[in-house]
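Follow-up to my post from last week.
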Amino acid sequence: MTVLEREQPVSSVKNSFQKIEDGQTATEWKGYEKFLFRVAFIFYTQLCLPIHNMVEWVTRITEIKIFNINYRDLYDIAGYRPDYLKIATDSGKWGLASYVTWGLALVIALVGATVWTFIVKLRHTERKEYKTLYYWLRVIVRYRIAVGIIAFGYVKLFPTQMPYPSEAVLNTLLGDMQEQKIYWYSVGVTIWYQVFLGLVEILGGALLFFRRTSALGAALIAVVLFNIAFANHSYDGGVHVYAAYFVLLSLFVLLHDFPKIWNLLVREKDVTPVIYEPVYDKKWQRYLKYGVKYAIVLVYLPFFFYIRAMGYWVENDPIQKEPTEPGLTAAQGLYNVTEFRVNNKTIPYSPLDSIRWQTATFEKWSTLTYKVNRRVKIDSGNGGPAKKDFDKNFELSGIAGGQRFFYYTADTTAQTLSLQDKNKTFGEGANASKADRAKAKKTKPKTYTWHYERPTSDRIILSGVDDRKDSIYVILDRVSKKYPLNEGRSEASIF
Amino acid sequence: MSTVELKETIPTTIAPQPVDQYAISAEKEVSWTSRQKFIFRVAFVYLLLLTVPLTGRFYQGIYKIDWSNFYWSNLSSIASGFGSPDFITLTKDEAWGLFSYINLLVTLCVALLVALIWTSIVRFRKTERKEYQTLYYWIRVIARYRLAFGVIAWGYKKLIPIQMELPTVGFLNTAFGDFREQKLYWQSVGITQHYEIFLGFAEVLAGLLLLFRKTTALGAALTFVLLINIAIANHAYDGGVHVHSFTYALLGFIILWKDLPNIWNLLIKEKDVVPVQFYPVLSGWQKSGRFILKTGGIAVFVVFLFYLHWIDDRGYRFGVNPGLENSIGHYNVTEFRLNNKVIPYSPVDSVRWQYAALERWSTLTYKVNRKQWMDLDNNKGERNDLDMRFELSGIGDGRHFFYYEEDKNKQLITLQNKNPKHRDQKQTLHYERPSDSRLILSGLNEFNDSIYVVLDKSNRKYPLYESRQQASIY
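User reply:
Got it. Predicted complex:
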């Protein structure tokens, strides 16, 4: 077999680096290329720079207590994106219409580019090319992706984005959970997979900080975030637009290098990469560039790591998804409702009774839940992190099955619990809409005070007046339950 | 008159000649260093051991194929049946940890040994080649095709979704904490089939890209990323196929290796790159042979396998024997009598059923406060209903699963516990269906006690399937 070889004059391998001086033009761009660039410029600056929400962004920055900075500050200021319009239909929340802001941004870009073209042609000041501006646009896009995705990566690396399911959730039937919740918790049950995802996101972002590795970073982020966007569409996760945002931005970054990669790998041709970088004449320009660049890199990589590590391991971060105030001592677990009396009448166990509790759970933190066959509007939000325990809705959002969630404070001397219903959309009737939630925010939550007794370590007796103004007496006995979810795979066990 | 012509010879400079892209240069040989040659020998043997099926299990599997009942799984196992030979047999426990990768390591050692022997032999006999370009080409072809067919076979199970099915009535009514991790992961992918199809599509795409030389590098990179993700997820969720997925990722990486220096130089070092390709020139019968093999392979493992998946209507997770007509659903146990004595509802009674479920296929399940061994195994390609245990493996909510056979004339169902450790439990129950939603069972249960059970189908809605878009009162 004769071996074929492609004959090439083996030029000395060199850097084909061309530093452009401002004004010097090596090649000329075609008319349509210049127009497309103008569109891209206006489009991507709208997406990446907080122009539309400049006021909110600056306000958010001023809220940062510089000596008490926490991860949420870095996360928030890196997460601003335009939100021109929210269409109040199903498609507007979950489907195609939720991308309306991008559509509007594109329209603005097209109009703006047309005006721009018109003006420069009219005044005969049209440039031959936009290499420098293209370079800076790519820098903006790269850094926007990087800081945004690194922030996400860090809440997975120190896994708090997807918390482990609480006792109440462990005892909720699969069919009683919204899809999004199952997706979230199925990642939350294993620490390591979440950590791995976090590492990948941080790696992708870090690669985008540096020009040489930005194509690899963009490719990685495009693939990973495409997966996340698709999953969000499948599971109604709610963050499909923001995930797809990263894909849109990464593809733009990749656009620059894609022809090279395609030519090299698929068309098997020689490639001479031509790189453009602005020349900095003055020292102060160089210092400024490196100063800003490394400030961002250092804050978003090592410093962010430090803050997360402190918040996760040392002091409990105040802004979390799951509550942090401890519950009744050693009360965590699932409880059978051995006896239930309403107004002194005993109601026997029945899964169909609309008053009689079926089971109850106490969490590690101060939440009590019970399951009853009575309808309630469920909280359909995502349950993002909040400052106060009472507002931390992650444990109840998307959970049905008749579960009721109560935040409580315990008075251990008087042996009373003061409870407040965490479901702020509580009530029967129509959907849990934004209006409902806004109204609920304004109404002050009712507090119920119940007396508790703990005759043994596994029995808790509650008595008091419930939300229907009935006096109840409940005997709860803890179930010594093993959860298959927690058991390892290798040992065979009895359940 | 004679004219003398003066000829002037103008020395011409050697002008660069336009090079014919496919000029043959048999003379010009590339030389590999000794280190490169040794590493190649190791890689060659390693890849051969990984891609050519050498386990007894594989050939036994082929021998056992029922050719009159050929279905997708037969072809799929051939496509994905490769990996390191089982030099060390693992116990059940060892199969989960890092030790499970030991065979990949042992195979590498074997490859090193063989390469050493190979090197010594050729040096001794002074027949050492200058390079192995041709062999490198061919081993990459073998590895590419093996990997491609394997990844595509895996992808088809999701693309035409049978790997992760929609939840059964039983699963929908099982508490979140009562699933083993792996089961939960499976359910979380299965509840929306779109995502599963997307994953399948990605796997198939990666495989297709590997089949063609020009797109090999992209395919290898995509395969590596996808399969590393699957391997790590398998570790996190105890999925069981971590070694197999890692092997795929490893092969992808080795295939990508050839193009890595070029990619690195181009993107990161920002240098000119001159890709040099070597591929053999085939003539005559060789050309047709190659064409037939390539087309044949693709026809069988890509096209035909897809067809087999397409026509399959039973999947491999659930039974096919139909259940009682129109009975699928979750049932409340309105009344329960044991030996004619009524037992009221109780979550702590060890005999009284709490609730029951009937599936589309002939499975009856009920929850009762009586412990049993949890079934742990993955499917092993069983096709008879009694052994289709996907609906019970990894579930620990206290539900007992019975396969039943119906006698329509006598209105009788004979039940047998599907749990492999409790197969001896059998029941014979007479059934009555006074209305669409009520089912009355009476007869002898698995402990030879007479029971009388009134089941009422629940018309509950599942928040899981009511979309988030219109929420929801539950």
